[in-house]
Amino acid sequence: MKRLLAILLVLAMCLPANALAAEVHIIADETALPAGWAEKELFRITVIDTDRSDAMLLECGGEKMMVDGGLGTYYRRVFKVLDDKGITELKYLYNTHYDGDHLMGLTAIMNSGLYQVGSFLSAVREDYKDKYEYHVKAVRAARKRGIPYVQIYDGDVITLGDATLSVLRCDENWGANNRSAACLVQFGESRLFLSGDCGNQVLEYFLENRDHALLKCDIMKAMHHGINGIVQEFLDVAQPELMFVPNKSSNVKKSPNLKQFIEMGALFSGDGMIVMETDGTEWYVWQYPNWVD
Questions:
Q1: pTM tops 0.85
Q2: What was the pLDDT predicted at 20?
């Protein structure tokens, strides 16, 4: 299939099998960062509080991208984060799958005309017609703004500064969530697994069909907002020091499986925006108070 060379999509996973784990430190806020930290080359992920939806800003080497954009209800929160950082250019908008709670915020970014977008990356083909037209509307917005559309496949690798995002996908016909374009982010020895809305069935598929060295990570996003829990077999292989959940911890009453992540000491972005930074050997993680509009 045709690739857009300009965004450096390649077909090989490039993660070293003997990658060392990076240490994860939870701190109160950015004032507790070690001296000289800001002068280092860093990778940063900001998990925006969009309640029970996914919206993540990734930054590295002066380049920025969004992985999903949250529900349209919260697009102003996404815009505020971008604007407060003075961001006017995004190298990629990366959509894991076409559900509205992942895609609507990205469509709002494109429709706004406020941000220059290099490419719109999606797990599905451009002409796909989804029931609620979330994908259709995103494609329409991309075309209106002249933003190149690129379908991403299992095994593709994209770059953001010196960080690599290696795409992991299961193409079994198990539904849109399970065909999410998950990815493993690597910066130096630091590794982050972003799972989209993959279910446990897909995690088991990865265990059976992928080199386990490619699944190890320091930090992992709970898939599908944590509502299905996570199988221990995958945790035993991935061995994340920290989990984060795009949801509110108080939603445990509606989704009892969230209790597993509460007991693991996971951070919930619905309880306040999460920032995670690494220099390639250590992570520093902190959380802001709950968002008040």
A1: yes
A2: 59
